[in-house]
């Protein structure tokens, strides 16, 4: 029955030998050896370990014939007596004082027949390194058998170990991470070019080969300076002129963008910078009171003023939290302007009368009142003056001019110049679905300080649609 085995683990074989000798005796037999890495964090800072499985052995004595035993092949020239390895060193008082005589051959048997020589025990063939480790001064004190056997196992291949029954082994530790080798880019350059300085290189020599980096370099972003984007400038000018902006305003917008916008936002393109500059130039109307207001719309005949009033009234009645009412200014029998306000004034009353003024103030105090005015002609200065006097007495919070987008720059300027006495402060661009020359109305709004507030156009179904606009939306519409 074989004795049980024990497992010993340490960082080196030298530190395990004393423990094995102390617990299993000097005749311990090494059954299995395993090496690996253990400890660390996430595969780093690991240290090696040695695991040995040994079992207790019986005492033995290996005696080698000094005269007849030849040394193994490749063994160093060692004196014969040193090739004997004892299982235990003798005490000083038991040490022999003389050399033991060699073994004698047995005497011949009776009858004259020569006697057969006594059988000898098989002599193990020990590699030369076995003797060097066993007889060296570096080996630890103790049994030469255990020391030499451990030294042999430490240098033996796994296939040379004695076969043992399969045992349950501990899971192997993960292999240590190996850092990727560093790349020396100087080695990629030819030696003849690298050795020669740049100023001493021959004239016919090619330029030094630049080392190839593992990642492509990030391209440097260049800023756009004034006058450096000729092609972009021409493209922006063409886009502005195509939508109705004059050449003078286009040049002024581009010069202002390159002078003031691009220095503070170099990553913007020229078109975006011009769009931001144009949005700053477009006027903005003050907000209407949240508790109620009166909105009056004025304009020439065919400008879409009445359609704009009806669409605006429907939008307030549909989606606003305030009640909406409709008032109309008409010409009376004597040419005087009269006011109709349902349900306060069902019969026309003079617009300048106290009753009409009080009714309009009461209607806009708790809601929104849309006031439609009679059409005016830019050539009728008296009619424009009379309408302006009535609007001053009614004091609406917003006076909006209906400007058709189909008008040219000259006609739009004449109309707005003639309607200055009305005190308008906002603009409604009508018929915007009939042309793309929206830049004419935008430039006119900037010239006469009128805030473009509404755009009236037909939808896909054919119905009129009134949408609110702002400077940013108009600038994006001109420079998409």
- Bin the strand percentage: 15-25%
Mean pLDDT: 75
Report the CATH topology name of the largest domain: Rossmann fold
Question: Which class of the largest domain in CATH terms?
Answer: Alpha Beta
Per CATH, which architecture of the largest domain? 3-Layer(aba) Sandwich
SSE topology sketch:
Blueprint: E1 5-10, H1 13-24, E2 29-38, E3 47-55, H2 128-135, H3 144-155, H4 191-195, H5 230-242, H6 247-261, H7 270-281, E4 293-298, H8 305-319, E5 324-331, E6 337-341, E7 345-350, H9 354-365, E8 368-372, H10 381-394, E9 398-404, H11 409-418, E10 426-430, H12 438-447, E11 451-458, E12 464-468, H13 471-478
Parallel strand pairs: 4-8, 4-9, 5-8, 9-10, 10-11
Antiparallel strand pairs: 1-3, 2-3, 5-6, 6-7, 11-12
Helix pairs in contact: 2-3, 5-6, 6-7, 7-13, 11-12
Concise summary:
Helix content is 30%, strand content 17%.
Textual characterization of the structure:
The protein has helices at 13-24, 128-135, 144-155, 191-195, 230-242, 247-261, 270-281, 305-319, 354-365, 381-394, 409-418, 438-447, 471-478; strands at residues 5-10, 29-38, 47-55, 293-298, 324-331, 337-341, 345-350, 368-372, 398-404, 426-430, 451-458, 464-468. The protein has 480 residues and is an alpha/beta fold. The strands form 2 sheets. A 9-stranded mixed β-sheet has the order 7-6-5-8-4-9-10-11-12, with helices on both faces. A 3-stranded antiparallel β-sheet has the order 1-3-2, with helices on one face. The two termini are 95 Å apart. It has 13 helices and 12 strands. The protein has 3 domains: 1-89 and 125-177, no CATH class; 230-281; 293-478, Rossmann fold (3-Layer(aba) Sandwich).
């Amino acid at each position: 029955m074989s004795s049980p085995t024990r497992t010993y683990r340490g960082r080196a074989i030298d530190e395990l030998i004393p423990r094995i000798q102390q617990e299993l005796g000097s005749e311990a037999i090494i059954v299995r050896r395993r090496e690996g890495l253990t400890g660390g964090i996430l595969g780093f800072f690991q240290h090696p370990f040695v695991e040995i499985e040994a079992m207790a052995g019986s005492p033995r004595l290996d005696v080698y014939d000094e005269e007849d035993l030849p040394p193994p092949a490749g063994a160093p020239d060692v004196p014969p007596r040193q090739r004997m390895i004892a299982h235990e060193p003798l005490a000083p008082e038991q040490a022999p004082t003389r050399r033991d005589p060699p073994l004698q051959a047995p005497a011949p048997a009776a009858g004259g027949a020569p006697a057969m020589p006594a059988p000898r025990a098989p002599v193990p063939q020990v590699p030369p390194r076995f003797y060097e480790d066993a007889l060296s001064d570096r080996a630890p004190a103790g049994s030469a058998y255990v020391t030499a056997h451990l030294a042999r196992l430490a240098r033996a291949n796994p296939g040379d170990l004695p076969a043992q029954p399969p045992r349950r082994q501990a899971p192997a530790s993960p292999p240590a991470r190996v850092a990727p080798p560093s790349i020396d880019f100087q080695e990629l350059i030819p030696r003849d070019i690298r050795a020669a300085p740049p100023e001493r290189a021959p004239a016919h020599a090619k330029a030094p080969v630049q080392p190839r980096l593992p990642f492509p370099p990030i391209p440097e972003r260049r800023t756009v300076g004034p006058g450096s984007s000729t092609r972009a400038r021409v493209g922006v000018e063409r886009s502005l002129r195509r939508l109705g902006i004059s050449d003078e305003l286009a040049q002024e917008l581009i010069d202002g963008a390159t002078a003031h916008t691009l220095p503070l936002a170099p990553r913007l393109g020229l078109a975006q910078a011009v769009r931001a500059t144009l949005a700053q130039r477009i006027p903005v109307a003050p907000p209407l009171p949240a508790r109620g207001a009166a909105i009056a719309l004025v304009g020439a005949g065919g400008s879409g003023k009445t359609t704009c009033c009806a669409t605006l009234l429907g939008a307030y009645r549909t989606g606003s939290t305030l009640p909406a009412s409709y008032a109309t200014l008409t010409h009376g029998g004597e040419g005087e302007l009269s006011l109709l306000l349902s349900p306060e004034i069902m019969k026309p009353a003079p617009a300048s009368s106290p009753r009409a003024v009080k009714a309009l103030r009461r209607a806009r105090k708790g809601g929104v009142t849309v006031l439609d005015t009679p059409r005016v002609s830019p050539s009728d200065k008296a009619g424009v003056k009379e309408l302006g006097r009535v609007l001053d007495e009614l004091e609406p919070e917003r006076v909006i001019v209906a400007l058709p987008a189909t008008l040219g720059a000259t006609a739009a300027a004449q109309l707005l110049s003639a309607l200055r006495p009305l005190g308008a402060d906002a603009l409604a661009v009508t018929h915007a679905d009939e042309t793309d020359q929206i830049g004419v109305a935008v430039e006119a709004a900037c010239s006469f300080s009128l805030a473009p507030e509404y755009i009236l156009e037909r939808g896909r179904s054919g119905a009129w649609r009134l949408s609110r606009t702002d400077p940013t939306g108009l600038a994006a519409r001109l420079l998409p």
